[in-house]
Amino acid sequence: MVALSQRAQNLGTENAFVVLAEVNKLIREGRNIISFCIGQPDFATPQHIQDAGISAITQGKHGYTPSAGIPELRQAAADYFSRTRGIQVHADDVVVAAGAKPFIGYTIQSVTDFGAGDEVIYPVPGFPIYDSQIKANGAVGVPIFLRESRNFGFDPQELAEKITAKTKLLILNSPQNPTGGIIPKADLEAIAEILRKHPQVWVFADEIYGQLVYDGEFHSIASLPGMQERTIISDGCSKTWARTGWRLGFSANKKLAPYFTNWITNTESCASHITQWAGVAALNGPQDDAQHMREVFLKRRNLIVSLLNQIPGVSCQSPGGAFYVWPNVTEACRLTRCADSEEFRKRLLLEAGVAVLADIHFGPRVPGDGQHIRFSYAASDEAIHAGLQRMGDFIHKNTQV
């Protein structure tokens, strides 16, 4: 009998898409569901970017491109990295892929060896593909916990204690999914100081939400002395320019660029030719629409945090970036006799028609930090008002003192 590999059977997933499938099934059955589960802007891609894609089609840009990307896009991304990170990035250091997500796997494949016991330190709660790709590529995952008491950051001293001779990679995500937390510049400096004592450790800087910062300024660890050459900067067009379905990401690292290019040749061949030309328009064109979207997200953040903190049994910190909130529902679970956040999530969906994600969709729960759920506030004001009204009514109806 033919069999599946253990690697395939153990491969993780991104639960936002799993829950979205549940939501779509309920909608097809006639249920009225307000969904906060998927992390994508609810805006149309800016018109000048759409026009660039259409122009690429009509001009016959239909074929393969170099695996690393068209020169015009690599230069545009290099200029973008340079001006937004305050560093000098060259076009030859940039590689383009079908989304930013592939660079997670390409990085792990490039700096660890399968089954050698090489360690990757990654944030928990965190984007679930980190853990999934660490396991799939035969490395050893070492979680570092993001704590509510530190505005969903980690103590750099904890990082110092986790680094061993086997540590090959540290994954940083700021602004962060799922909490919206931002690593303060002082913590980045402390992290860089620790890493200077461990020259074997690469850094994967997942900065896909870097242009969606609301409190203070965005800082990249790559801008700190000695860090650029060992940092893989990862970004893309999905979040800033509302282009999730166009699939376009780019990374920058001088040493690893040729290896990423080879991985792409082995897998994707190249990102879509059409999408790449639209990416040039996104990076080099007017930024009015991107700025408008950021301003709307800021207003929504303030709205959803205010409304969540008015619901009995719920407390919510104000996140510094991205478009997620990570409310603590420990007391709400107790009031409604839910065993944990996952039961709370399921009942909220089935009984109140509100779709969110639970903390366990982003790794093990942080010890001592209670129960959390994630809302994506890439949704209208009307949806936010209606969804949180339903959540409050659900808790009130089911409260058992």
Into how many domains do the coordinates divide?
2
Uncertain spans: none
Overall radius of gyration: 21 Å
Derived from helix and strand composition plus strand pairing, the structural class reads alpha/beta
Query: Which fold name fills CATH's third level, the topology of the largest domain?
Result: Aspartate Aminotransferase, domain 2
Output the number of helix runs: 14
How would you characterize the overall build of this protein?
The structure is a single chain. With about 400 residues, this protein is of the alpha/beta class. It folds into two domains: about 5-45 and about 290-400, Aspartate Aminotransferase, domain 1 (Alpha-Beta Complex); about 50-285, Type I PLP-dependent aspartate aminotransferase-like (Major domain) (Aspartate Aminotransferase, domain 2), CATH 3.40.640. About 40% of the residues lie in helices and about 10% in strands. It is built from 14 helices and twelve strands. The chain has helices at about 5-10, 15-30, 45-60, 70-85, 100-110, 130-135, 155-160, 185-195, 255-265, 275-285, 290-310, 330-335, 340-350, 380-400, and strands at about 35, 95, 120-125, 140-145, 165-175, 200-205, 230-235, 250, 325, 355, 355-360, 375. The strands form three sheets. A seven-stranded mixed beta sheet has the order 2-8-7-6-5-3-4, with helices on both faces. Strands 9-12-11 form a three-stranded antiparallel beta sheet. A two-stranded parallel sheet has the order 1-10. The termini are far apart. The mean pLDDT is about 95.
